[in-house]
Amino acid sequence: MVRTWAPQGQTPIHRHRPGRRDKIFVISGISVSPRRRRLGLYYLLFYDNIGQDEVCVLLRELLRRLRIEYFPSYAPQLNPDEGVWALAKQQLANSCPNDVDELMEDILGSIDGIRNSQEKLRGCIVHSELPFSLR
Question: Which of 13, 43, 54, 115 could be a cystine partner for 50, CB 3.0 to 4.6 Å?
């Protein structure tokens, strides 16, 4: 359940301009240091759909720092990054930005709050179904 600022017993109403659906697209990954003491969250934000070129940009940056672990092609239960987006969506649930710039600020605030919390990042890894050796 998400808290809102509406008076008790009344459904909150978010007003927006009809016909306008600004979007921000995000790609990210969680890193675990070799000694398992420090976690990192890397992400890129885009105003347009994410395609192979955008994925390559993130992967090139990550490959400078990380060793790759292979996962099945579709296994969200093994992906700790799913926890990041669950947390981010929780925090953004009551957001009502006026434009795409405010949306970007809200997203950055949410993601950076998760990125700066070792406890939240560790929770995303622990709650995934990764084998213990990878946690």
Answer: 54
Instruction: Tell me whether residue 14 is in a domain.
Output: no
Does a structural domain hold residue 95? yes
Domain holding 79, by residue range, is 25-68+75-134
Report the domain count for the chain.
Answer: 1
Q: What is the pLDDT along the chain (135 residues), one digit of tens a residue?
A: 556 677 788 877 766 666 667 788 998 888 887 776 788 899 999 888 898 988 888 888 888 876 667 777 788 888 888 999 999 999 898 888 888 899 999 999 999 999 999 999 989 988 888 775 554
Scanning 1-135, the segments in alpha helix (DSSP H) are 52-63, 81-92, 100-115, 118-126
- Residue 60 covered by a domain: yes
